[in-house]
Amino acid sequence: GANIENVSMENSEGSNATLNFTIGVTDRVHLAHIIRRIRGVNEVTRIMRRGS
Hints:
Blueprint: E1 3-11, E2 17-24, H1 28-39
Antiparallel strand pairs: 1-2
C-alpha cells in the first residue's frame, strides 16, 4: 500500500473542491498504479503529479 502523508482541501467555484494529497510511494511503477486507480473514481475530474 501507499502512505497518505498529508491532505489539504481548497474550496472552488460551485460544488467543486480541490483536494491535495501527499502520498509516499516506493517507485514510479507504484505511483503509476495509484494514479490509474484514482482516475477510475467517477468523481475525480483531474489528477496531477507535482514535484518529485
